[in-house]
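Researcher: Let's walk through a ligand-bound prediction step by step. First, I give you the protein sequence. Second, the SMILES string for zinc ion. Third, you return the three-dimensional complex as structure tokens. Ready?
Model: Ready.
Researcher: Here are steps one and two:
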Amino acid sequence: MNMKTNSRAIKILAAATAALVITTLVLLLTIGPWKKSTTSGKELKSGRNKETTVSSEDESDLSEESVTEPTVPEITFGESVVRTSSEEETTEPETETTEMTSETTEETTSETTSETTEETTKETTKETTEATTESTEPKETKSHSDGSYDLSGMVIVIDPGHQRHANSDTEPLAPWSDEQKAKVSAGTSGVSTGRPEYEVVLEIALKMRDYLESQGATVILTRSSNDVDISNVERAQIAVDNNADVFLRLHCDASDSSSARGIGVFVCSRGELSDYQVKWGDWLGTCLSEATGSKYRGCDASTRYSGLNWSTSVPSFLLEMGFMSNATDDELLSDPDYQHELCVGVAAFCQKMKNR
Ligand SMILES: [Zn+2]
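Model: Step three, the predicted complex:
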């Protein structure tokens, strides 16, 4: 009976042990799949997050964060997992905003730069304008070339020196003198152009007449052709008879020195206006120098010129516009631009004479 009882007890124990083992195994088997399924669920969740461009690194972080979600106080951190997509949408615009901001900054910067550039440009322009104004101060007379001189009421007599054929007959040098002088000399000719002085001065005189008339002056030429025979005293008489405000005798100079260049003025040293003639002569030379850029050589007062001596009641000037014995001057004297500058210089002078 004891043996039977013991044998049954062992069987029961063995069965209980087996049951325990089986239960344990079952439990183990049950727990294993549960864990696995949980993980896979999270993976799905992360997968959704993945769609919102969360990096794989972030994914593992998020998994950890989601596990700690209930316990970690920084719920916002956990929430960020839930709102990842929306936040990232927000973040993306923020990034865009940041980009826009940087663009804006760039724009602002570029605007500032462009403003600065504009300012710089304006300043440069201003400076340039100022510089131009400064540098063209003498040339301001040039801007008058479009009609801003007011020579209205002025009578200007212009005598283009010489003529095609010289007249060696003589006439009195001055009203106060018995000395005789040739009526009209031959004049010089261009060392480079070969042009005769009488031709060049007439060419300039015709332009000067037109120009001064365009500025309001009344202009009288002592001759408008090369084929005339008018003495120097007769030319002076035209100025006196017309009660000229200015009598201008146009000539070109010549020198033994081929390097001699520039503008010269000759006036009469006698007569009622002799106290002013040199001053006015300087005005003329200066105006011409400023208009042409040529050197003004000075004003010489004497009684050597019959054409001046006989017009002492009129402001009279013999103007040597340049040296035909110098190649550069010679070519300039036939240059239309230079000729125009001479006209402008004379206009500036006449304006000065009118305003004096
Ligand atoms: Zn001459």
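Researcher: And what stands out?
Model: The mean pLDDT is 74. Residues 161-162, 187, 197, 251 surround zinc ion (CB under 6 Å).
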